[in-house]
Amino acid sequence: MIRRDLGSAVAADTARLSVMPLEREGGQAQFVVHDQPPAPRGSALEEVLAWLADNADKDVTLDAMAARCGMSQRTFSRRFREQTGTTPLQWLLRARIRRAQYLLETTEHTVERIAEQSGFGSPTAFRERFRRIVGTTPQSYRAAFHGRARQAGTS
């Protein structure tokens, strides 16, 4: 009903917020949006988190992150964990997965191209990390969230 009334993009967002695929098949994994823990407004990390999200597809090092905040790597890592509840690397990997989810939902690009556009070194590393974080393969995710959206758009 949501897809018919409000469109496929709203239906996909609603399904993710409801922790459900658009249409569930037997034995299919649930899909969860993995939002990043927000940094408090005005914190030293607010700017670097925005920069990380914008540059998730690039080769970003811990040293580069710390330098953007004017901190040593050790201080940066400690403050990052205090303010976000996770490590800089885990945060970056989740940002890359969110970008890949968006591309799987909205493009026809191959998994190999999406791996590259999302900042993963190889399609194999991308597939493994995607499965570990999302709980399914990139192809299954696309089938649940992109294939149905295309069908709705053609009717």
TrEMBL record:
The keyword Nuclease does not apply. SUPFAM superfamilies: Homeodomain-like. Pfam families: HTH_18. It comes from the Bacteria. Residues 46-144 form the HTH araC/xylS-type domain. One of its GO terms (molecular function) is DNA-binding transcription factor activity. The keyword Transcription applies. Keywords: DNA-binding, Transcription, Transcription regulation. InterPro entries: Homeodomain-like_sf (IPR009057), HTH_AraC (IPR018060), HTH_AraC-typ_CS (IPR018062), Tscrpt_reg_AraC-type_HTH (IPR020449). PANTHER family: ARAC-FAMILY TRANSCRIPTIONAL REGULATOR, HTH-TYPE TRANSCRIPTIONAL ACTIVATOR RHAS. This is Transcriptional regulator, AraC family. The lineage of its organism: Bacteria, Bacillati, Actinomycetota, Actinomycetes, Kitasatosporales.
